[in-house]
Amino acid sequence: MTLKSIVAAAAVLATGAIATDAAAAGPTVDRIKARGELVCGVSQGSAGLSLPDGQGRWSGLDVDYCRALAAAVLGEAAKVRFVPLSSQQRFTALQSGEVDVLSRNATWTAGRDASIGILFVGTIFYDGQAFMVPRKLGVTKATELSGATVCVQPGTVNEQNLVDYFQANKLTFKSVVIESLPELEGAFYAGRCDVYLSDASTLSASRAARASSPDDFVILPERITKSPLSPAVRSDDANWFAVARWTLNLLVEAEELGITSANVEAQKKSESPAIRRLLGVTPGIGKNFGLDESWGARVIAAVGNYGEIFERNLGPKTSLRLARGQNALWRDGGLLYSPPFQ
User: How do the residues of the chain divide into helix, strand and coil, expressed in percent and rounded to 5?
Assistant: First the structure.
């Protein structure tokens, strides 16, 4: 091969690399744009995560994540249609295309990741299963629950964890299996069962929103599992998975960089390379996802960073009164950490 032909071949390769540098939006983003709204699967009602008010307006951590996605893809956080799903409906609704994204306090597990055609985006909330009991029972720890009647939803990891925990601790129990979350909670507060098993966040939300007297119920201190809650998308669209994952990462990275909904415009003048990349002042990140360069700034302006979202929906000033704990940034002793936006 002559020097001239080598140079020509190198030019062709370089041109090809440049041509493929900017990613095209995938079919899911195209469908969402054509429809003019994002369809988001949420719970049937869990305060702090996803709960409608009397006018049908949804709020919660999972809800704000969907609004962040809508802001990224459609330019407006309000362009979301929320579809409440039971624990048994949720994955089927995602697989069938009824919803674009499932943001419904679903635990990320190996079996689900490997076998049902969905991809978990990333941990949005570190949780763990716990037991809630009426205070009048006088129970102070889970090992005192032998012989109890336990309310649990079918088709959840909670159901299997219940069996595993009681077997491991040589305890007996009777389960009351109810698919509908509102019906299950109604049964528990009506006294049909002694124990309500779910993620600690779900229990806190239920106690705050549904119990006529929240102080009459106690969440026992044990966490019997690790329960990383994650949004999920179908596994057939790599671009949509990337958009969904990096929108979540964006919320975490914005908090670490000190970018908030109040200062995002001012931060565009920052000299920090990391901030300039995140907000699209230095171009490059948006085109990798088939999005415009201002998508990150638009998301933060619409919903705030992860810390703002947590405090608004779950924090000490809300009825749930949850501390950040494991859901704090890594530098503050928590587990939240975003890969670099480079």
Answer: 45, 15, 40
Structure tokens given for 34? 């054509």
In terms of DSSP bridges, do strands 51-52 and 232-234 run parallel, antiparallel, or are they unpaired?
unpaired
Task: Decide if 139 contacts 173 (C-beta within 8 A).
Answer: no
Pairing of strands 118-120, 232-234: antiparallel
148-152 and 173-177 beta bridge pairing: parallel
Which pLDDT tens digit goes with each residue over 129-176? 899 999 999 999 999 999 999 998 887 778 888 999 999 999 999 999
Q: Give the three-class secondary structure for 283.
A: coil
Structure tokens at 222: 């044990």
Strands 125-127 and 227-229: antiparallel
Percent of the chain topping pLDDT 70 = 93
- What is the DSSP secondary-structure string of 260-324? -TTTHHHHTT---HHHHHHTTSS-SHHHHTTS-TTHHHHHHHHH--HHHHHHHHTSTTSSS----
- Global pTM? 0.81
Q: Residue 294: how many CB atoms within 10 A of its CB? A: 17
**Amino acid (1-letter code) at residue 125:** F
Residue 37 near residue 80 (C-beta atoms within 8 A) = yes
Dig out the tokens for 20 from the structure: 């493929």
By the 8 A CB rule, do 56 and 83 touch? no
Neighbours of 290 (CB within 10 A): 19
